[in-house]
Amino acid sequence: MRPERLLPIPHAINLRELGGYPTEDGRYLAWRKLLRSGTLGYLEPADGQALVAYGVRFDVDFRSDNETQTRPDRIPQAIRYQQLPVYPFVDRPSLFKRLRDKLRGDNDLETIMANTYGQMLTDSHANAAYQQLIALLLRNTQPDTSLLFHCTAGKDRTGIAAMMIQGALGVSAPVMREDYLLTNLVLEAPEQMAQADLRHGADHFVNQMNAHQAETSNYDAVSRLIAKEYGDWPNYLQKQLHFSAGDLTDLRQLYLTDDPEPKD
Fold first, then answer.
1. Cis preceding linkage at 8, omega within 30
2. In terms of DSSP bridges, do strands 146-150 and 28-29 run parallel, antiparallel, or are they unpaired?
3. What is the pLDDT of residues 72-124, one digit of tens each?
4. DSSP codes joined into one string, 210-261
5. Which of 34, 78, 105, 238 makes the best surface tag, with the fewest CB within 10 Å?
6. Cβ(55)–Cβ(7) under 8 Å?
7. One Pfam family for this entry, by name (predicted)?
8. Alpha carbon distance 119, 116 (integer Å)
9. CA dihedral sign, ordered 255, 139, 154, 81
10. What is the CATH number assigned to the segment(s) 16-250?
């Protein structure tokens, strides 16, 4: 299977390559190293073997226990599975924030979703999941060996992870934004078997999030938070997730290349 943006594995949902995206220093994300996806709970044996043949060796699942029990990943033993649930959040929003939102009347859906994205970046439980993701990325040292990360729709929890990785690697904001919004095109007419999970999963909060598209307002809220509180994504990984400058250098060495074209 030749690398391309949307990988043609029949029973995968929103399975995409991150290879080939340009960085601001003139390099590119390497192909066959980073994949993002929705649920892998519908894979057939041939689909799993196709992932193995492609080079997938790590499967990071951001879903909560009830989601994974309802629709467990169907992957071969050759792929190492790691559940890193992002939800539920464990830190309460600050009193100042709750009073501010109450006074402003910020209870509309757009604000709620944007706040959820902000919590994914700051909540200690969510941070622990993303810390472990980056640690696994740093251990994925073999060439053409892919790490796949996913949630149910491959939109919110996965979207934050993709922004985090792309930002750390130096992908420009417009490219990151387009990759985030690409989910809307991919899921515009999902196969019927996927619709049940995307609309009626095992968790009410996840259902609410999955009922809506990848919104530009969510991406903008994340960008504002990163710029205001951390300056940029590399600083976020250092200050909030406690990775070193050397770790970020290692990450770029592992996942960047001078060649934009995939190898067969």
1. no
2. unpaired
3. 999 999 999 999 999 999 997 654 454 445 445 555 667 888 889 999 999 99
4. HTS---HHHHHHHHHHHHHHTSSHHHHHHHTS---HHHHHHHHHHHEES--S
5. 105
6. no
7. Y_phosphatase3
8. 5
9. positive
10. 3.90.190.10
